[in-house]
Amino acid sequence: MKNKETIHVQGTEISVMRINNQDYICISDMIKAKDNNFFIANWLRNRNTLEYIGIWEQVHNPNFNYVEFDIIKSQAGLNRFRVSIKDLIQETNLTCLHATTGRYGGTYAHKDIAFEFAMWISPEFKIYIVKEFQYLKEQEQKALGWSAKRELAKINYHIHTSAIKQNLIPAELIPQQTSIIYATEADVLNIALFGITAKQWRETNPEKDGNMRDYASINELICLSNMENLNAVFINEGLSQKERLIKLNQIAIRQMQVLVDVENRKLLN
Predict the structure, then answer these.
(1) Least crowded by CB within 10 Å, which of 30, 193, 211, 260?
(2) Is 131 inside any structural domain?
(3) Same structural domain for residues 86 and 188?
(4) How many domains in the chain?
(5) CA-to-CA distance for 89 and 73, rounded, in angstroms?
(6) Is 39 exposed, middle or buried (0-12, 13-18, 19+ CB in 10 A)?
(7) Phi and psi of 119, rounded to 5°?
(8) Cα dihedral value 227, 232, 236, 237, nearest 10
(9) 117 and 148 belong to one structural domain
(10) pTM for the predicted model, two decimal places
């Protein structure tokens, strides 16, 4: 289970949580959007609700006890019929509903079930919660894309430092001396792309954690990844640091212009 995220639907803040690598939405929060008295227990008493939950569990949960669930469902519609989420989980091994306590306490439903629950609140509410949930997932995918580019830059950094070690660092140097060479070579890329060294960035951004690459755009990370590979090639070819810096700066200018042009074309389309 991970820390919750939130979406806002018609003025109501609703928690979203990952449980067993699946998205669950807090239906306890969703109830707040209902003007009149409305309880999860009332929703669970409905036969249509139980039929939908039962079919969902049969499709997605190989450990679901449908025989026991069918006994419970057969009582739906009777005035005396009451069922709790705790009972359903214990007696049928239900997985689409999850009750939590503590900091993120509440009743959570798998998104498939939560969207059906939203229909009970109102058709309009369901449309808006689906829209906001989809937007949340789109933002998560963008964040994952940035993270993937950052990891690619880290991998290429190891290729880059390997070339430095093999071609620029004499074996007799002590570790402190080799670290100076590594730092200098890292700044070759920093200057070529960002125009400043790592030290200069830290001096101008004392309030920020990490380094300038942690605050780079996706386009800059793509360009940096390419430059690390090319610098390793240039080192192996025996080019001087000055020659490499000039070449890398020219490459950075061309590649960033191409990436910007691509983005502009997407916006126009």
Answers:
(1) 260
(2) no
(3) no
(4) 2
(5) 14
(6) exposed
(7) -65, -30
(8) 0
(9) no
(10) 0.52
Q: How far apart are CA 66 and CA 61, in angstroms?
A: 10
Tell me how far apart the alpha carbons of residues 204 and 212 are, in angstroms, rounded to a whole number.
11
269 residues of the chain, pLDDT tens digit each: 456 788 888 888 999 988 888 899 999 898 887 765 567 888 888 889 999 999 999 999 999 999 999 999 888 878 788 888 888 999 999 999 998 876 667 899 999 999 999 988 888 989 999 999 988 888 877 766 666 667 767 766 666 666 655 554 445 546 665 555 666 788 888 888 888 888 889 999 988 888 888 888 888 888 888 888 898 899 989 988 888 888 888 888 888 877 777 666 655 55
Distance CA 84, CA 123 (A): 25
Query: Of 19, 43, 31, which is closest to residue 111 (Cα–Cα)?
Result: 19
Q: Could you tell me the residue range of the domain that residue 52 belongs to?
A: 5-121
Query: Phi and psi of 163, rounded to 5°?
Result: -65, -40
